Amino acid sequence: MALWSNTSMRPALRAHLQSALTLSVAALVLLVGWAGVAEFPWWAALGVEPQLWWHVIPLILMAAALLLRIRRPVLALLLGGLIVLVDLSIGVNVGILLCLSDLVYSLGIRGGRRAVSITGGVLGLITIGIGAGSFLAGVEWRAAVSLSLGGMAVLLMPLWWSWEVRRGYPLWQEADARGQLEAERHANVLRAQARKRHEAVEEERRSMARELHDVVSSQVSAIALSSGAVLNAPAESARDREALRTIRITSVEALEQLREMVQLLRGETVDPASGTALEAATWDQVIARARQHGLQVAIDGQPPDGLSPAVRHVLLRILQEALTNALKHGDGSASIGVRTRRRRLLLQVSSGLRQEEGDVVAVGSGTGLTAMRERAEMLGGTLRAGPSRGDEKTWLLRAELPLKEQNDE
Protein backbone atom coordinates (compact mmCIF):
# COMPACT_ATOMS: atom_id res chain seq x y z
CA MET A 1 0.00 0.00 0.00
CA ALA A 2 2.92 2.39 0.67
CA LEU A 3 4.02 2.00 -2.92
CA TRP A 4 0.78 3.42 -4.26
CA SER A 5 0.59 6.15 -1.61
CA ASN A 6 3.78 7.70 -2.98
CA THR A 7 2.52 7.99 -6.55
CA SER A 8 0.80 10.93 -8.18
CA MET A 9 -2.25 8.84 -9.08
CA ARG A 10 -5.56 10.53 -8.49
CA PRO A 11 -7.13 9.59 -5.11
CA ALA A 12 -10.43 8.44 -6.66
CA LEU A 13 -8.64 6.12 -9.08
CA ARG A 14 -6.32 4.79 -6.40
CA ALA A 15 -9.28 4.06 -4.10
CA HIS A 16 -10.86 1.79 -6.73
CA LEU A 17 -7.60 0.23 -7.89
CA GLN A 18 -8.01 -2.83 -5.66
CA SER A 19 -11.53 -3.41 -6.96
CA ALA A 20 -10.35 -3.05 -10.56
CA LEU A 21 -7.64 -5.65 -10.00
CA THR A 22 -10.09 -8.02 -8.31
CA LEU A 23 -12.57 -7.67 -11.18
CA SER A 24 -9.76 -8.29 -13.64
CA VAL A 25 -8.84 -11.54 -11.88
CA ALA A 26 -12.50 -12.57 -11.80
CA ALA A 27 -12.85 -11.89 -15.53
CA LEU A 28 -9.67 -13.88 -16.18
CA VAL A 29 -11.15 -16.83 -14.26
CA LEU A 30 -14.10 -16.82 -16.65
CA LEU A 31 -11.95 -16.42 -19.75
CA VAL A 32 -9.75 -19.42 -18.98
CA GLY A 33 -12.79 -21.52 -18.09
CA TRP A 34 -12.03 -22.05 -14.41
CA ALA A 35 -15.59 -21.28 -13.36
CA GLY A 36 -17.97 -24.21 -13.17
CA VAL A 37 -21.59 -24.92 -14.07
CA ALA A 38 -23.54 -27.19 -11.72
CA GLU A 39 -26.55 -29.33 -12.64
CA PHE A 40 -28.96 -28.03 -10.05
CA PRO A 41 -32.49 -29.47 -10.02
CA TRP A 42 -34.21 -26.12 -10.55
CA TRP A 43 -32.64 -25.75 -13.99
CA ALA A 44 -33.88 -29.20 -14.97
CA ALA A 45 -37.35 -28.29 -13.70
CA LEU A 46 -37.31 -25.21 -15.88
CA GLY A 47 -35.99 -27.14 -18.83
CA VAL A 48 -32.98 -24.84 -19.13
CA GLU A 49 -29.35 -25.87 -19.37
CA PRO A 50 -27.05 -23.30 -17.67
CA GLN A 51 -24.13 -21.93 -19.65
CA LEU A 52 -20.70 -20.78 -18.49
CA TRP A 53 -21.16 -17.26 -19.85
CA TRP A 54 -24.08 -16.75 -17.48
CA HIS A 55 -21.47 -15.92 -14.82
CA VAL A 56 -20.79 -12.69 -16.68
CA ILE A 57 -24.13 -11.21 -15.57
CA PRO A 58 -23.46 -11.52 -11.80
CA LEU A 59 -19.94 -10.25 -12.41
CA ILE A 60 -21.28 -7.08 -14.05
CA LEU A 61 -23.65 -6.59 -11.12
CA MET A 62 -20.74 -7.14 -8.73
CA ALA A 63 -18.81 -4.36 -10.48
CA ALA A 64 -21.69 -2.00 -9.65
CA ALA A 65 -21.63 -3.14 -6.01
CA LEU A 66 -17.87 -2.53 -5.81
CA LEU A 67 -18.41 1.10 -6.79
CA LEU A 68 -20.38 1.54 -3.54
CA ARG A 69 -17.76 0.05 -1.25
CA ILE A 70 -16.06 3.40 -0.51
CA ARG A 71 -19.03 5.41 0.74
CA ARG A 72 -21.63 2.70 1.46
CA PRO A 73 -19.63 -0.39 2.54
CA VAL A 74 -22.52 -2.08 4.39
CA LEU A 75 -24.93 -1.71 1.47
CA ALA A 76 -22.22 -2.85 -0.94
CA LEU A 77 -21.63 -6.02 1.10
CA LEU A 78 -25.35 -6.82 1.29
CA LEU A 79 -25.73 -6.42 -2.47
CA GLY A 80 -22.55 -8.41 -3.03
CA GLY A 81 -23.88 -11.27 -0.90
CA LEU A 82 -27.10 -11.43 -2.90
CA ILE A 83 -25.14 -11.36 -6.16
CA VAL A 84 -22.95 -14.23 -4.96
CA LEU A 85 -26.07 -16.28 -4.14
CA VAL A 86 -27.33 -15.65 -7.67
CA ASP A 87 -23.97 -16.71 -9.08
CA LEU A 88 -23.83 -19.84 -6.93
CA SER A 89 -27.21 -20.85 -8.34
CA ILE A 90 -25.39 -21.25 -11.66
CA GLY A 91 -22.23 -22.88 -10.35
CA VAL A 92 -19.00 -22.20 -8.54
CA ASN A 93 -17.03 -19.12 -9.65
CA VAL A 94 -13.92 -18.39 -7.60
CA GLY A 95 -13.55 -14.97 -9.22
CA ILE A 96 -16.77 -13.55 -7.83
CA LEU A 97 -15.91 -14.96 -4.40
CA LEU A 98 -12.74 -12.85 -4.53
CA CYS A 99 -14.94 -9.82 -5.19
CA LEU A 100 -17.00 -10.70 -2.12
CA SER A 101 -13.80 -10.86 -0.05
CA ASP A 102 -12.92 -7.38 -1.33
CA LEU A 103 -16.27 -6.08 -0.07
CA VAL A 104 -15.77 -7.71 3.33
CA TYR A 105 -12.31 -6.16 3.65
CA SER A 106 -13.64 -2.75 2.60
CA LEU A 107 -16.37 -2.86 5.25
CA GLY A 108 -13.80 -3.86 7.88
CA ILE A 109 -11.68 -0.83 6.97
CA ARG A 110 -14.37 1.81 6.43
CA GLY A 111 -17.35 0.62 8.46
CA GLY A 112 -18.15 1.73 11.98
CA ARG A 113 -17.11 -0.43 14.93
CA ARG A 114 -20.66 -1.55 15.59
CA ALA A 115 -21.18 -2.48 11.94
CA VAL A 116 -17.91 -4.42 11.87
CA SER A 117 -18.77 -6.31 15.06
CA ILE A 118 -22.24 -7.25 13.83
CA THR A 119 -20.84 -8.25 10.43
CA GLY A 120 -18.22 -10.45 12.11
CA GLY A 121 -20.88 -12.27 14.10
CA VAL A 122 -23.13 -12.76 11.09
CA LEU A 123 -20.29 -14.01 8.88
CA GLY A 124 -19.18 -16.37 11.63
CA LEU A 125 -22.66 -17.86 11.83
CA ILE A 126 -22.79 -18.17 8.04
CA THR A 127 -19.45 -20.00 8.02
CA ILE A 128 -20.63 -22.44 10.70
CA GLY A 129 -23.95 -22.81 8.91
CA ILE A 130 -22.22 -23.71 5.63
CA GLY A 131 -20.39 -26.62 7.26
CA ALA A 132 -23.32 -27.78 9.40
CA GLY A 133 -25.84 -27.47 6.58
CA SER A 134 -23.63 -29.41 4.19
CA PHE A 135 -23.16 -32.18 6.73
CA LEU A 136 -26.89 -32.39 7.47
CA ALA A 137 -27.61 -32.45 3.73
CA GLY A 138 -25.68 -35.69 3.46
CA VAL A 139 -22.37 -34.30 2.21
CA GLU A 140 -19.32 -36.27 3.33
CA TRP A 141 -17.81 -34.77 6.46
CA ARG A 142 -14.48 -34.01 4.73
CA ALA A 143 -16.30 -32.05 2.04
CA ALA A 144 -18.39 -30.27 4.70
CA VAL A 145 -15.25 -29.24 6.57
CA SER A 146 -13.70 -28.10 3.29
CA LEU A 147 -16.72 -25.93 2.51
CA SER A 148 -16.61 -24.46 6.00
CA LEU A 149 -12.92 -23.64 5.64
CA GLY A 150 -13.61 -22.07 2.25
CA GLY A 151 -16.29 -19.87 3.78
CA MET A 152 -13.86 -18.89 6.52
CA ALA A 153 -11.20 -17.93 3.93
CA VAL A 154 -13.64 -15.89 1.87
CA LEU A 155 -15.63 -14.22 4.67
CA LEU A 156 -13.73 -14.15 7.95
CA MET A 157 -10.07 -13.82 6.95
CA PRO A 158 -10.53 -10.49 5.07
CA LEU A 159 -12.48 -9.10 8.02
CA TRP A 160 -9.72 -10.19 10.41
CA TRP A 161 -7.00 -8.60 8.24
CA SER A 162 -8.92 -5.35 7.98
CA TRP A 163 -9.35 -5.27 11.75
CA GLU A 164 -5.61 -5.69 12.25
CA VAL A 165 -4.96 -2.86 9.81
CA ARG A 166 -7.33 -0.62 11.79
CA ARG A 167 -5.45 -1.47 14.97
CA GLY A 168 -2.21 -0.45 13.29
CA TYR A 169 -0.28 -3.68 13.86
CA PRO A 170 -0.53 -7.24 12.60
CA LEU A 171 -1.54 -9.58 15.42
CA TRP A 172 1.17 -11.49 17.32
CA GLN A 173 3.87 -9.42 15.69
CA GLU A 174 7.44 -9.88 16.85
CA ALA A 175 9.10 -6.89 18.46
CA ASP A 176 11.82 -6.52 15.82
CA ALA A 177 9.28 -6.80 12.99
CA ARG A 178 7.14 -4.14 14.64
CA GLY A 179 10.16 -1.87 14.91
CA GLN A 180 10.97 -2.43 11.26
CA LEU A 181 7.43 -1.51 10.21
CA GLU A 182 7.50 1.59 12.42
CA ALA A 183 10.81 2.63 10.82
CA GLU A 184 9.35 2.17 7.34
CA ARG A 185 6.28 4.17 8.28
CA HIS A 186 8.48 6.91 9.75
CA ALA A 187 10.64 6.96 6.60
CA ASN A 188 7.52 7.31 4.43
CA VAL A 189 6.38 10.26 6.55
CA LEU A 190 9.79 11.91 6.25
CA ARG A 191 9.82 11.43 2.48
CA ALA A 192 6.32 12.93 2.20
CA GLN A 193 7.37 15.93 4.31
CA ALA A 194 10.54 16.41 2.24
CA ARG A 195 8.48 16.30 -0.94
CA LYS A 196 6.07 18.91 0.43
CA ARG A 197 8.96 21.15 1.46
CA HIS A 198 10.49 20.85 -2.00
CA GLU A 199 7.17 21.71 -3.64
CA ALA A 200 6.75 24.69 -1.30
CA VAL A 201 10.24 25.97 -2.18
CA GLU A 202 9.57 25.57 -5.91
CA GLU A 203 6.26 27.40 -5.60
CA GLU A 204 7.96 30.19 -3.67
CA ARG A 205 10.61 30.47 -6.39
CA ARG A 206 7.93 30.74 -9.04
CA SER A 207 6.12 33.37 -6.98
CA MET A 208 9.32 35.38 -6.56
CA ALA A 209 10.00 35.16 -10.30
CA ARG A 210 6.49 36.42 -11.07
CA GLU A 211 6.81 39.30 -8.62
CA LEU A 212 10.25 40.28 -9.90
CA HIS A 213 8.99 40.27 -13.47
CA ASP A 214 5.84 42.22 -12.66
CA VAL A 215 7.59 44.81 -10.48
CA VAL A 216 10.59 45.50 -12.70
CA SER A 217 9.60 44.58 -16.26
CA SER A 218 6.95 47.19 -16.97
CA GLN A 219 8.94 50.09 -15.49
CA VAL A 220 12.20 49.11 -17.20
CA SER A 221 10.37 48.62 -20.49
CA ALA A 222 8.79 52.05 -20.16
CA ILE A 223 12.20 53.60 -19.40
CA ALA A 224 13.73 51.90 -22.45
CA LEU A 225 10.89 53.05 -24.71
CA SER A 226 10.94 56.62 -23.44
CA SER A 227 14.70 56.97 -23.73
CA GLY A 228 14.70 55.30 -27.15
CA ALA A 229 12.06 57.68 -28.45
CA VAL A 230 14.08 60.68 -27.26
CA LEU A 231 17.34 59.39 -28.72
CA ASN A 232 15.75 58.70 -32.11
CA ALA A 233 14.19 62.17 -32.39
CA PRO A 234 15.80 65.56 -32.95
CA ALA A 235 16.81 67.38 -29.78
CA GLU A 236 14.09 69.45 -28.18
CA SER A 237 14.67 70.90 -24.74
CA ALA A 238 11.12 70.90 -23.31
CA ARG A 239 10.23 67.46 -24.64
CA ASP A 240 13.56 65.94 -23.55
CA ARG A 241 13.23 67.35 -20.03
CA GLU A 242 9.70 65.95 -19.77
CA ALA A 243 10.97 62.55 -20.94
CA LEU A 244 13.80 62.65 -18.40
CA ARG A 245 11.31 63.58 -15.66
CA THR A 246 9.12 60.62 -16.63
CA ILE A 247 12.14 58.29 -16.71
CA ARG A 248 13.23 59.43 -13.26
CA ILE A 249 9.75 58.96 -11.75
CA THR A 250 9.45 55.51 -13.30
CA SER A 251 12.90 54.41 -12.15
CA VAL A 252 12.27 55.62 -8.58
CA GLU A 253 8.95 53.74 -8.50
CA ALA A 254 10.66 50.59 -9.79
CA LEU A 255 13.39 50.78 -7.15
CA GLU A 256 10.86 51.47 -4.38
CA GLN A 257 8.63 48.58 -5.41
CA LEU A 258 11.62 46.27 -5.67
CA ARG A 259 12.73 47.30 -2.18
CA GLU A 260 9.26 46.68 -0.77
CA MET A 261 9.07 43.27 -2.43
CA VAL A 262 12.38 42.28 -0.85
CA GLN A 263 11.03 43.44 2.52
CA LEU A 264 7.91 41.32 2.06
CA LEU A 265 9.98 38.27 1.15
CA ARG A 266 12.06 38.79 4.27
CA GLY A 267 8.93 39.02 6.40
CA GLU A 268 9.45 42.69 7.23
CA THR A 269 6.61 45.16 7.58
CA VAL A 270 5.92 47.50 4.67
CA ASP A 271 4.57 50.96 5.53
CA PRO A 272 1.38 51.44 3.48
CA ALA A 273 1.57 55.20 4.11
CA SER A 274 4.57 55.44 1.77
CA GLY A 275 2.16 55.52 -1.19
CA THR A 276 4.17 53.07 -3.27
CA ALA A 277 3.14 49.76 -1.72
CA LEU A 278 2.82 46.89 -4.14
CA GLU A 279 -0.94 46.74 -3.71
CA ALA A 280 -1.47 50.53 -3.89
CA ALA A 281 -1.92 50.79 -7.67
CA THR A 282 -5.47 51.19 -8.92
CA TRP A 283 -7.12 50.43 -12.23
CA ASP A 284 -7.02 54.09 -13.26
CA GLN A 285 -3.39 54.48 -12.19
CA VAL A 286 -2.25 51.54 -14.31
CA ILE A 287 -4.01 53.00 -17.35
CA ALA A 288 -2.73 56.51 -16.58
CA ARG A 289 0.86 55.28 -16.46
CA ALA A 290 0.45 53.57 -19.83
CA ARG A 291 -0.94 56.78 -21.34
CA GLN A 292 1.86 58.76 -19.74
CA HIS A 293 4.35 56.66 -21.69
CA GLY A 294 2.59 57.37 -24.97
CA LEU A 295 0.07 54.53 -25.32
CA GLN A 296 -3.37 55.46 -26.64
CA VAL A 297 -5.87 53.48 -24.56
CA ALA A 298 -9.57 52.99 -25.31
CA ILE A 299 -11.66 51.63 -22.43
CA ASP A 300 -14.97 49.80 -22.57
CA GLY A 301 -16.22 48.93 -19.08
CA GLN A 302 -14.84 49.00 -15.55
CA PRO A 303 -14.10 46.21 -13.03
CA PRO A 304 -16.86 45.88 -10.43
CA ASP A 305 -16.46 47.12 -6.89
CA GLY A 306 -15.94 44.68 -4.06
CA LEU A 307 -13.34 42.43 -5.71
CA SER A 308 -11.30 40.39 -3.27
CA PRO A 309 -7.68 41.59 -2.83
CA ALA A 310 -6.28 38.51 -4.60
CA VAL A 311 -8.55 38.86 -7.65
CA ARG A 312 -7.94 42.60 -7.80
CA HIS A 313 -4.17 42.10 -7.58
CA VAL A 314 -4.11 39.52 -10.38
CA LEU A 315 -6.40 41.63 -12.56
CA LEU A 316 -4.12 44.67 -12.25
CA ARG A 317 -0.99 42.60 -12.86
CA ILE A 318 -2.48 41.13 -16.03
CA LEU A 319 -3.61 44.56 -17.22
CA GLN A 320 -0.20 46.06 -16.49
CA GLU A 321 1.63 43.31 -18.40
CA ALA A 322 -0.80 43.51 -21.33
CA LEU A 323 -0.33 47.29 -21.65
CA THR A 324 3.45 46.91 -21.31
CA ASN A 325 3.44 44.41 -24.18
CA ALA A 326 1.31 46.79 -26.22
CA LEU A 327 3.92 49.51 -25.64
CA LYS A 328 6.85 47.24 -26.51
CA HIS A 329 5.44 45.37 -29.49
CA GLY A 330 2.29 47.24 -30.53
CA ASP A 331 1.47 50.11 -32.83
CA GLY A 332 0.92 52.56 -29.97
CA SER A 333 -2.73 51.85 -29.22
CA ALA A 334 -4.69 49.38 -27.12
CA SER A 335 -8.36 48.61 -26.44
CA ILE A 336 -9.54 47.35 -23.06
CA GLY A 337 -12.87 45.58 -22.53
CA VAL A 338 -14.27 44.47 -19.19
CA ARG A 339 -17.40 42.34 -18.70
CA THR A 340 -18.96 40.29 -15.92
CA ARG A 341 -20.75 37.06 -16.72
CA ARG A 342 -22.04 34.32 -14.40
CA ARG A 343 -19.80 35.13 -11.46
CA ARG A 344 -16.81 35.52 -13.81
CA LEU A 345 -14.85 38.61 -14.75
CA LEU A 346 -13.74 38.86 -18.39
CA LEU A 347 -10.83 41.09 -19.36
CA GLN A 348 -9.89 41.57 -23.02
CA VAL A 349 -6.96 43.68 -24.24
CA SER A 350 -6.28 44.03 -27.97
CA SER A 351 -3.54 45.93 -29.75
CA GLY A 352 -2.14 46.13 -33.25
CA LEU A 353 1.29 44.57 -33.73
CA ARG A 354 4.04 46.89 -34.94
CA GLN A 355 5.05 46.31 -38.57
CA GLU A 356 8.65 46.20 -39.71
CA GLU A 357 9.54 45.76 -43.38
CA GLY A 358 6.17 44.22 -44.17
CA ASP A 359 6.38 41.58 -41.42
CA VAL A 360 4.88 41.53 -37.98
CA VAL A 361 7.54 42.26 -35.37
CA ALA A 362 8.44 39.40 -32.97
CA VAL A 363 6.69 39.37 -29.60
CA GLY A 364 9.31 38.62 -26.97
CA SER A 365 10.18 35.49 -24.99
CA GLY A 366 6.76 34.85 -23.43
CA THR A 367 7.95 35.11 -19.82
CA GLY A 368 5.30 37.68 -18.97
CA LEU A 369 2.53 35.62 -20.56
CA THR A 370 3.61 32.57 -18.54
CA ALA A 371 3.52 34.58 -15.32
CA MET A 372 0.07 35.99 -16.15
CA ARG A 373 -1.29 32.55 -17.00
CA GLU A 374 0.02 31.10 -13.73
CA ARG A 375 -1.58 33.91 -11.75
CA ALA A 376 -4.95 33.38 -13.43
CA GLU A 377 -4.85 29.61 -12.93
CA MET A 378 -3.99 29.99 -9.24
CA LEU A 379 -7.38 31.70 -8.77
CA GLY A 380 -9.22 29.15 -10.90
CA GLY A 381 -9.29 31.32 -14.00
CA THR A 382 -7.90 31.09 -17.51
CA LEU A 383 -5.81 33.25 -19.80
CA ARG A 384 -5.27 33.05 -23.56
CA ALA A 385 -3.10 35.32 -25.67
CA GLY A 386 -2.14 35.31 -29.33
CA PRO A 387 -2.98 36.71 -32.74
CA SER A 388 -6.66 37.45 -33.19
CA ARG A 389 -8.68 35.03 -35.30
CA GLY A 390 -8.94 36.34 -38.82
CA ASP A 391 -6.50 39.17 -38.16
CA GLU A 392 -2.91 38.10 -37.50
CA LYS A 393 -1.84 41.75 -37.22
CA THR A 394 -3.85 42.18 -34.00
CA TRP A 395 -2.71 40.73 -30.68
CA LEU A 396 -5.54 39.66 -28.37
CA LEU A 397 -5.31 38.81 -24.69
CA ARG A 398 -8.37 37.34 -22.97
CA ALA A 399 -8.42 36.62 -19.24
CA GLU A 400 -11.27 35.08 -17.28
CA LEU A 401 -11.17 35.34 -13.48
CA PRO A 402 -13.65 34.39 -10.74
CA LEU A 403 -15.36 37.34 -9.13
CA LYS A 404 -14.48 35.76 -5.79
CA GLU A 405 -11.65 33.53 -4.69
CA GLN A 406 -12.49 29.82 -4.71
CA ASN A 407 -11.92 29.59 -0.96
CA ASP A 408 -14.45 32.34 -0.40
CA GLU A 409 -17.28 30.58 -2.25
From TrEMBL:
It comes from the Bacteria. GO terms for molecular function: kinase activity. Its EC number is 2.7.13.3. It catalyses: ATP + protein L-histidine = ADP + protein N-phospho-L-histidine. CDD domains: HATPase_UhpB-NarQ-NarX-like. This is histidine kinase. The keyword Transferase applies. Keywords: ATP-binding, Kinase, Membrane, Nucleotide-binding, Phosphoprotein, Transferase, Transmembrane, Transmembrane helix, Two-component regulatory system. The lineage of its organism: Bacteria, Bacillati, Actinomycetota, Actinomycetes, Micrococcales. Signal peptide: none annotated. SUPFAM superfamilies: ATPase domain of HSP90 chaperone/DNA topoisomerase II/histidine kinase (SSF55874).
